[in-house]
Amino acid sequence: MKKKLALVVLLIAAMSACASIIETNRSICVQAAAEELPLPIVMYHSVLKSRNGKYVIHPDELERDIIKYKEMGYTPVTLREVVAWVDGAANLPEKPMVITFDDGHHNNLHYALPILQKTNSKVVINIVTSFSRHASETPGESDNPNYSYLTWNNISQLQNSGLVEIGNHTHAMHKFKPRYGIAQVSGETVESYKQTLRTDIETANRFLTENAGAPRPTTFAYPFGKYTKEGREVLLELGFRAILTCNEGVTTIRRGDPSSLLELKRYNRSGNVSHEKFIEKVFG
Fold first, then answer.
1. What confidence tens digit (pLDDT) does each residue in 24-62 have?
2. 75, 93, 125, 146: which one has the fewest Cβ atoms less than 10 Å from its Cβ?
C-alpha cells in the first residue's frame, strides 16, 4: 500500500513538473511538434533619414515596424535557424518571421544595427560583394550612410554582433545589363551559363569568408528576384539551403522538406507606404 501511495505521489509530481515545463517553454514545445509553419519574410534595403523611396525607409519607421512585429507575437529569426528547424535539428519560436536587408548598404550598420540591438532582433543581410570590395578599396567610399556600401570590416562587425546572418546576393550580377540579374543571355549555352553563375557566386562566397570572416553562406537572394531552373540547380550544387525571391506572399515551410526553402516569398518594405498599410498588407 505504501509503495502504491509513493508511486502515485511520484506520478503527480512528475505531471506537475511536466506541466510547468510545457507552460514555461510553450513556444518551443509547440514548434517541436509542428509539421509546417507559415513564415512571413520582410525585405528591406536602405535605411536613411535623408529621404524615403520604394527601397528606402526612415530609421524611425524601421524601429516602429520591428516593435509592431513583436507586439503581434512574432520573433525575428535567421534563415540558418529556419533551415535547422526544417532539418529537425532545432526548434523555432511559436511565430517566427525573417527580416532581410538586400545589397549591403552601409546604412544597415549605421542606422539599422543600433535598432536591432535595442530590440534584440535578428536579421539576414544579403551582400553584393563587388559593392563591398569597391567600398573597402576606394578612399572616401566607405562610411557615408547615404551612398556607401559595407566594407569587409563592417560585415565582420555585423556578423560578430550575434544578430546578423550574412547571405550571398552575387558578386557582380546585381545589374540590368548585359544580363538581368542571374538571367541567361541570348545565345549563351546552358553549360556556359551555369559556369558563369558558379564562378560569380563562388567568388562572392570566397570574398565573404576570406575577407569578412563570415561563415560560408547558406542563404542566397536573387538579384531583382529573377530566377531560373538552371540557376537553382547551381545554387543547390553549391550548398545553398534557403533561396529568397521577390515574389510577394507568405511561404509555408515544412519539417523534413528542404524543398520548401527554395522559393521563399518576401514583402518589400517600401518607404512610400505607411507603417499601418504595410502591416495590414503582410499580416492582414
1. 444 444 455 579 999 999 999 999 999 999 999 999 999
2. 146
DSSP annotation string for 137-166:
HSTT-SS-TTT-B--HHHHHHHHHTTSEEE
SS3 at position 284: coil
Cell numbers standing for residue 25? 517553454
In this prediction the pTM is 0.89
Pairing of strands 242-244, 251-254: unpaired
pLDDT digits (tens, 9 = 90+) for 77-93: 999 999 999 999 999 99
- CA gap 46, 54 in Å, rounded: 10
- Alpha-carbon torsion 30, 31, 34, 38, what sign? positive
Rounded Cα gap, residues 122 and 205, in angstroms = 21
